[in-house]
Amino acid sequence: MRAIGLSAALAALLAGNVAQAQWLINELSFGHSGRLDHDGHGKIPGFTISGQPHQPELLSNKIILTPVAPGNQRGAIWADSPLTRSAWTADVDFRANGPERGNGNLNIWLARQGSRDIGSNSIYTVGKFEGLGLVIDTHGGATGMVRGFLNDGSVDYVHQHNVDKLAFGHCYYQYRNLGRPSQIKFRQTHSSFRVDIDGTLCFETDKVSIPPGYHFGLSAATPDTPDSFEVFKMVVMSESTVSGEDHHDKQQKINYESRQTRSPGGAQEDPEAGNIMPDQPAEMYTTSSAQFQDLHNRLQSATHLLNAVHRTNLQHRKKSDDDQEDIKHTLHELREQLLHSNRNDDLNHRIRELESEVRSLRDEIHNKLSAHQDDLHRYLGQHHTLLSHTVTSSMPGHGKLIFIIVGTQALLVTAYVLYKKRKANSPKKYL
């Protein structure tokens, strides 16, 4: 009974702290203690450093993957041991400095073959690889961008005409010449994959799951006008101290969809939910070793159950958040549709008023044009009649005209005859 009471007390203590516990994976981390090169030999324990054409410079508190000069440099650092957890959190502190038009990219990898397939390549020069790549660069001439890429080993990135379209998530972030390190954190749980930059969400998805057995690595590449990429630390942590790597995980490839199974009723099943120890009578434990073994087994079972409850709680919380977002999105769309409908009704009313005004204006113009045409016709008719009457009344008749002509001729003949007679009767003067 004493052992059972101790088990209950420890289980209660564990229940209050299991959700907050984070365990450092020392063989996958560096820089968390303040120093990188502990023995002064230019090496980081558990990591391999490489570069082209020069090796990255390792200092006491940082590693310079690419220097500020010269350009066209590549540098990389890869963990020798694979990640054996299925739920984990990784933090990378980096800094980028360079001239005004400096450029380059920093790549954070979680890949199966690690340095063998990728080495010091960037996302633009790597071939086929299996895993995840987070890229920080000035994509498309912007101030900066963080993008996520996935590959199941079938896509040859170096032969892709447009690598940018393969990104499954992105956000804008101005990272150059800040004068301080930037922190990028990416986290995988049993229900989602999330990327944060300086404590702000960059992107999140529940369609990505990286199985255990992959290697962490960082690489940087620069052009002619380079940026200097400095890495201060990489810290990998997990909520579990138990390795999640087994034969099934070794055979499993990267999955773009959620790997959780669902029961016919729609609830998610957890393989640890059935790991419950049956009750046993106290008389069975006659030795301290048996009591300790029972206590150990029960604590382990309680830990698994608490982890299962925690994961289920996270899944329900995620589903609740997703449902809330869906409801907000639906309400927003409904509000937009109502506003759009009201705007359409108002627009239709205005159109009808405008049509009525145009129709009345057209009728008024038509009536005025008709009236003006009638007035013009009447005026032209009256003017034509008056002109005809005037011409007709002022023109002399034919008889009068003949009489005038004949009379004029007769007067001229008479005058001529009188002139001749008068000339004949006048006396002749002789000189």
UniProtKB/TrEMBL annotation:
Top-level taxonomic group? Eukaryota
Q: Does the keyword Magnesium apply?
A: no
On whether Membrane is a keyword of this UniProt record, the answer is yes
Gene3D superfamilies found in the cross-reference section: 2.60.120.200
Q: Where is the signal peptide?
A: 1-21
InterPro entries listed in its UniProt record: ConA-like_dom_sf (IPR013320), EMP46/EMP47_N (IPR035661), Intracellular_Lectin-GPT (IPR051136), Lectin_leg (IPR005052)
**Places the protein is found:** Membrane
Q: Which PANTHER family match?
A: LECTIN, MANNOSE BINDING 1 LIKE, VESICULAR MANNOSE-BINDING LECTIN
Q: This protein is called what?
A: L-type lectin-like domain-containing protein
Origin organism of this chain? Answer: Purpureocillium takamizusanense
